[in-house]
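[Automated response] Your request has been received and processed.

Submitted sequence:
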Amino acid sequence: MEVPLDRHEMAKLEVTDFTEFKKLQGEKLPAGDWLRVSQEMINDFAKATLDFQWIHTDIEKAEKYSPFKKTVAHGFMSLSLVSKLLGDLIQVKSAIMGVNYGLNKVRFPSPVLVNSQLRILGNIRDIESYGENGLKITWNIVIESDLQKKPVCVAEFISLMFE
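Generated structure:
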């Protein structure tokens, strides 16, 4: 039985199957939609990771002592948003499951300031067969912020997709 991936809204780029998806290798992907990073999201991430450093969660202390004068999201929070941002960007209709496989490179050139908006840019560097019904995809990912000149996250991200 085929179980579709959950999608709450339409992805910007939809392809029918793996054959069509493979044609995107090396192509620049469209820019993703903007996602606002709220203090509530930052606090929830702090709770999930047990990382309560004041620069993330203490608004008054951040306004007084932080060089950014406001709280900032955890670097790993921006990285954790890659799956959501990619899922909102591209959908392979025949895919029944996708999972994170790993990372080759990750950098956080700029902080994610509270209430900034993030979006994903990038391309598919490589697509390889994986098992009988899967693909291993290497993505070149850039997450940019509406409040920073430099990206907030640059990563070589690897995922698996199955149909």
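Summary generated for your ticket: The chain has six helices and nine strands. Residues 13-162 form a domain with the Thiol Ester Dehydrase; Chain A fold (CATH 3.10.129.10).
If you did not submit this request, please reply to this message.
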